[in-house]
Write a structure and sequence with these properties.
With 308 residues, this protein is of the alpha/beta class. 23% of the residues lie in helices and 27% in strands. It is built from six helices and 19 strands. Strand 11, helix 4 and strand 12 form a beta-alpha-beta unit. Helix 1 runs parallel beside helix 6. The chain is elongated and about 65 Å long.
Length: 308
Amino acid sequence: MGKIKTHDVIIIGGGPAGLTAGIYASRAKLKTILIEKGMAGGQIAVTEKVENYAGFSAGAGRELIAIMEGQAREFGTEMVMGEVKAVRLSEDIKVVTTNRGEYRAPVVILATGSHSRKLNVPGEDEFMGRGVSFCATCDGPFYEGLPVMVVGGGDAAVEEGLALTRYAQKVYLVHRRDALRATKIVQERAFANDKIAFIWDSVVEELVGDQQLEKALVRNVKDGQVREVDISGIFIYIGFIPNTAFVADEVEVDEGGYIITNDVMETSVPGVYAAGDCRRKLLRQAVTAAGDGATAAFAAEKYLEGRA
């Protein structure tokens, strides 16, 4: 275990919410550390094209994240790559224990984001990395000239399905309802693309293959009929689960595990804030995550002034 370090603000998570919080906290001259277990960026880092973040519409998500990370570092945010093992948030000085050491601060901002929800069907775990993927941007090029399937009906599913048409021979989009949830402009692009075939009112029942994924068994939820669809890859976008299990006993969460905050991002514990996709909110997008991060950092500054 490394030595104990004390800061003004500890930020857990390096997506748009965490990085923006780092920018605002560091600009306020608060000694700020950001802990991220992998590469900075979260969900947006694997987004092929960002076109709905105001002022940035011509690049990939990783490019936007690189700009944010550069700004945070420029203002003095200390970046640490480490995995949080435990937290103690109820005391005046919070304690965050990682595989790199222990950190303490009177303020913690939780910006832990979320991870993809699985289908939980036979074959999903078996073919993980051998046909099953949650990232079209990452794995799409492996399916050049091959048929693939996308599961889901929201923006992520349809946008990534469109991205896959650059590589795949055919993209089957499976949705359990008879209408998409994606925004209208995204839907229009998908309906106009002759490489995309829609399988409505259906769910994936099983994934089948030998060494690699070869087909999906798809059941129609209305008539119960099951069909086989020959595919080489499947990309799953059926929602997300917040990365909050490690704090569920420390702060109040809702039935879905999302952290409950007030309008200044304060959780049920004084000095602890939540921002971005890990908190309960209407819209989970990079732009709202950034707004959450800015608000949390500003509220944290006022909280610290009150302690002085």
